[in-house]
Design goal:
Blueprint: E1 4-9, H1 21-24, H2 29-43, E2 46-51, H3 55-68, E3 71-75, H4 84-91, E4 97-101, E5 123-126, H5 131-150
Helix pairs in contact: 2-5, 3-4
The structure holds 1,3,4-trihydroxy-5-OXO-cyclohexanecarboxylic acid (DQA).
Residues 12, 75, 77-78, 80, 101-103, 105, 112 line the site of 1,3,4-trihydroxy-5-OXO-cyclohexanecarboxylic acid.
Length: 152
């Protein structure tokens, strides 16, 4: 069974560490990727880590994940609140999906309270900073291991 997890990041997350550090912190996306790779080794997962400011690229990576991955961790950033197309793509993926937000979107503007992606996510982590990505990877590993144990 595949142990490959796609970790997908939406628009503006390339500026992590530089944009609104009071909200998103000082760590860069490269720091997040490094931490994910260290944890992935411990969890015996492989990682494809991507960021794009373009909705279609995120959709294409979800389609690629359909062919090869056991899970998706996704921070869709602002596409969370707007993209039915990303929801449709995730609905075509048959394995666990965990949605991550660095900030607590529920403490922020009302337009951030609704997520299209949450309609399909197995779990949602918000407000724990970049540590949320690591918790999400642990969540995917637990779900994949539980499934492997019921269908050995
Ligand atoms: C975000 C929250 C979104 O509302 C926002 O548009 C982002 C980042 C977060 O990680 O907290 O760009 O997804």
């Amino acid at each position: 069974m595949s142990r490959l997890v796609y970790v997908l990041n939406g628009p503006n997350l390339n500026l992590l560490g530089k944009r609104q550090p009071d909200i998103y912190g000082h760590e860069t996306l490269a720091d997040v990727e490094r931490a994910c790779r260290v944890l992935a080794q411990e969890l015996n997962l492989e990682i494809n880590f991507h960021q794009s400011n373009r909705e279609y690229e995120i959709i294409d990576w979800i389609h690629a994940a359909r062919e090869s991955a056991c899970g998706i961790v996704i921070n869709p950033a602002a596409f969370t609140h707007t993209s039915i197309a990303i929801l449709d793509a995730l609905n075509s993926f048959d394995h666990p999906v965990i949605e991550v937000h660095i900030s607590n979107v529920h403490k922020r503007e009302e337009f951030r309270h609704h997520s299209f992606v949450s309609l399909c996510a197995n779990g949602v982590i918000a407000g724990l900073g970049t540590h949320g990505y690591l918790l999400a990877l642990r969540g995917i590993a637990a779900l994949v291991d539980a499934k492997a144990n019921t269908n050995p």
